[in-house]
Amino acid sequence: MRVVRIILYSFALSLCANCFAAESAHPPLTLKDSKVGDWVEYRISSTVNHGSPVVTRLRNTVTEKFADKVIVQTASLDEVGKPAHFTASESRLDTLAAFGDVTKQRETGKKDVVVGHRTLTCSFIIAEPEAEKSVAIFYSPEVPLGGVVRIDTKTKTFTSEQILTAFGSAETPAKP
Known about the structure:
Layout: H1 2-24, E1 39-48, E2 54-65, E3 69-77, E4 83-92, E5 105-115, E6 118-127, E7 134-139, E8 148-154, E9 158-168
Antiparallel strand pairs: 1-2, 1-9, 2-3, 3-4, 5-6, 6-7, 7-8, 8-9
């Protein structure tokens, strides 16, 4: 049951972080530019109460696009990268929810982040939206679905690293 909770939390974190990056970028990276077939894949390592980390791999793919929303399918991947479980969620293009209070930014800037064999120049934001909680998000306009490249979340009892491992679209091969 604990593993299921961590996987669900990781999925929610993935979607919320995509929205946060979309609202925090200058100019804004939003889901408005998403196309059917755009996808991102993440490796998420989560630890609760300093226990053993639970590693999850997720792939988010845009399956439908409408005038005001996109439908994103999330697949949890098994150890060889094949989809093991699917869920779908709806994200509005015009009202993206922020991940925490962006007014409590501690630091912003640019940093190169290595993804596979490729280096992406990312903008980053480090925020402390609540007491004893820190969120660092790195994002790039080269990455579809909000541009999220990496997210590090730390609270008193929970740590999570979400790292982009690959991305692409229906028209282009996987990157990196």
